[in-house]
Write a structure and sequence with these properties.
The complex is a heterodimer of chains A (113) and B (116). Chain A is mainly beta. In chain A, 0% of the residues lie in helices and 56% in strands. In chain A, strands 2, 5, 6, 10, 11 and 12 form a six-stranded mixed β-sheet that branches. In chain A, strands 3-9-8-7 form a four-stranded antiparallel β-sheet, with no helix packed on it. In chain A, strands 1-4 form a two-stranded antiparallel ribbon. In chain B, 0% of the residues lie in helices and 49% in strands. Classes of the chains: A mainly beta (113), B mainly beta (116).
Chain lengths: 113, 116
């Protein structure tokens, strides 16, 4: 079985300040981990993925995430928030190719000018 | 850049009616999926489809649901007799069969289903 917990349902940051979105996972095997973003009235867009290569993963739009097996965490960060980063972010786990994705509850990010 | 498309963007139906949600996956992809997101809840897996058959389904995917790939491009989700609780955003996704055991699922923009 697999599960994902996003520790914050809402995060508010000021433009230009760092963003940290926290995610913990539970899995009985070596998982693939993803972060997806959903802008208002849009579909889910892949930000980045971890697939057992480098533990620090770089994604689009300046986001990166670090896989820490000992902490079962996959936190998402960005050094400097932009207004366009306002969206909902989902941490997701998968067992392997062709397998279902299990989503966290999502973190809604608000960026203040 | 190739993308997954879904039609319609919004569907309103009466309880008990049948609905068909349509998806066009990315053309060289081999795995297809349906997920749904009830308002205020998590995105939930419904079903995965590979090689013209269901490869995995969740407990949500009961006899009221069916999937089909009627031709070489479309992938459909049918709900035979809709209930109020079927109201949700339905997302289609597709992925390539990648070697090494990893895949990326690409999502469509979703169909918002409202059952009255």
């Amino acid at each position: 079985a697999q599960s994902v917990t996003q520790l914050d349902s809402h995060v508010s940051v000021s433009e230009g300040t760092p963003v940290l979105l926290r995610c913990n996972y539970s899995s009985s095997y070596s998982p693939s981990l993803f972060w997806y973003v959903q802008h208002p009235n849009k579909g889910l867009q892949l930000l980045l993925k971890y697939t057992s290569a480098a533990t620090l993963v770089k994604g689009i739009n300046g986001f990166e995430a670090e896989f820490k097996k000992s902490e079962t965490s996959f936190h998402l960060t960005k050094p400097s928030a932009h207004m366009s980063d306002a969206a909902e972010y989902f941490c997701v786990v998968s067992k392997a190719a062709g397998n279902k994705l299990t989503f966290g509850g999502g973190t809604r990010v608000l960026v203040k000018p | 850049e190739p993308e997954v498309t879904q039609t319609p963007s919004h569907q309103v139906t009466q309880m008990g009616q049948e609905v068909i949600l349509r998806c066009v996956p990315i053309s060289n992809h081999l795995y297809f999926y349906w997920y749904r997101q009830i308002l205020g809840q998590k995105v939930e897996f419904l079903v995965s489809f590979y090689n013209n058959e269901i490869s995995e389904k969740s407990e949500i995917f009961d006899d009221q649901f069916s999937v089909e790939r009627p031709d070489g491009s479309n992938f459909t989700l049918k709900i035979r007799s809709t209930k109020l609780e079927d109201s949700a955003m339905y997302f289609c996704a597709s992925s390539e069969l990648a070697s090494g055991g990893t895949d990326t699922q690409y999502f469509g923009p979703g169909t918002r289903l409202t059952v009255l």
